[in-house]
């Protein structure tokens, strides 16, 4: 008989499936489709989007000076994010093979597609590429970290934490000594065949 946590996780998976169905309906409503991973809008929609685009000079004129002055600080983070992406990808390629952990696919976490929106000007598109990449790297690194933590120390913390990863609910309770070794063995077996799609969470 499933316990409360398993029932909640099952409910979350069901909700995620419902969300995907609703997102598919939105694609139809906004009249675009995905072809080989590329977004394709209907010609009439694309033409309407172009007409709604705010000219770059108008956009910049409406931007507060402090936003312009802080922009270099934002974009300076691109280098650390790219290095994090590189180092974590190398770590996963080497260590996950050694540990027998199924590898995380980058493309399941990093989406750079908003530049196809004709109603965005060039600067807005650049900003969207930046955000898609950096937030995708965070999600990708988080899942690699979650699998690493699951392999080495799948024990919940003594105190409540905000925003734990989706694998955390399957960890043993803090102080549950008898359950740790059997749970660790099972978790490691599961990690070897971890699904490639991102977990619920």
Structural overview:
With 201 residues, this protein is mainly alpha-helical. It has one domain (31-192). The protein contains seven helices and two strands, in the order αββαααααα. It has a two-stranded antiparallel ribbon with strand order 1-2. A hairpin with a 2-residue loop joins strand 1 and strand 2 (38-41). Helix 5 (78-99) packs parallel to helix 6 (122-152) and helix 6 packs across helix 7. The longest helix has 31 residues, at 122-152.
Q: SSE layout and pairings?
A:
Elements: H1 4-29, E1 32-35, E2 38-41, H2 43-52, H3 56-61, H4 65-76, H5 78-99, H6 122-152, H7 177-192
Antiparallel strand pairs: 1-2
Number of helices: 7
The whole-number mean of residue pLDDT values reads 88
Number of domains: 1
Beta-strand residue percentage? under 5%
For the terminal residues, how far apart are their CA atoms?
23 Å
Order of the strands making up the biggest sheet: 1-2
One letter per element, helices H and strands E, the order comes to HEEHHHHHH
Low-pLDDT sequence parts? 196-201
- Helix fraction, binned, reads 55-70%
Task: Give a quick account of the main beta sheet: strands, pairing sense, barrel closure.
Answer: 2 strands, antiparallel
Instruction: Compute the CA-based radius of gyration.
Output: 21 Å
């Amino acid at each position: 008989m499933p316990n409360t946590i398993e029932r909640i996780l099952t409910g979350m998976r069901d909700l995620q499936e419902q969300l995907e169905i609703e997102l598919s309906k939105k694609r139809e409503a906004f009249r675009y489709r995905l072809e080989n991973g590329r977004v394709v809008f209907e010609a009439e929609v694309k033409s309407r989007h172009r007409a709604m685009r705010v000219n770059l000079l108008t956009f910049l004129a409406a931007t507060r000076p402090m936003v312009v002055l802080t922009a270099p600080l934002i974009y300076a983070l691109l280098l650390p994010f790219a290095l994090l992406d590189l180092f974590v990808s190398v770590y996963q390629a080497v260590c996950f093979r050694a540990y027998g952990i199924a590898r995380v696919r980058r493309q399941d976490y990093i989406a750079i597609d908003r530049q196809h929106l004709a109603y965005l000007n060039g600067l807005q598109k650049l900003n969207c590429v930046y955000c898609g990449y950096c937030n995708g790297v965070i999600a990708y690194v988080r899942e690699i970290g979650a699998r690493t933590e699951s392999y080495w120390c799948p024990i919940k913390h003594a105190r409540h934490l905000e925003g734990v990863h989706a694998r955390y609910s399957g960890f043993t309770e803090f102080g549950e000594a008898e359950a740790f070794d059997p749970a660790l063995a099972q978790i490691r077996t599961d990690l070897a065949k971890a699904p490639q799609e991102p977990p619920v969470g």
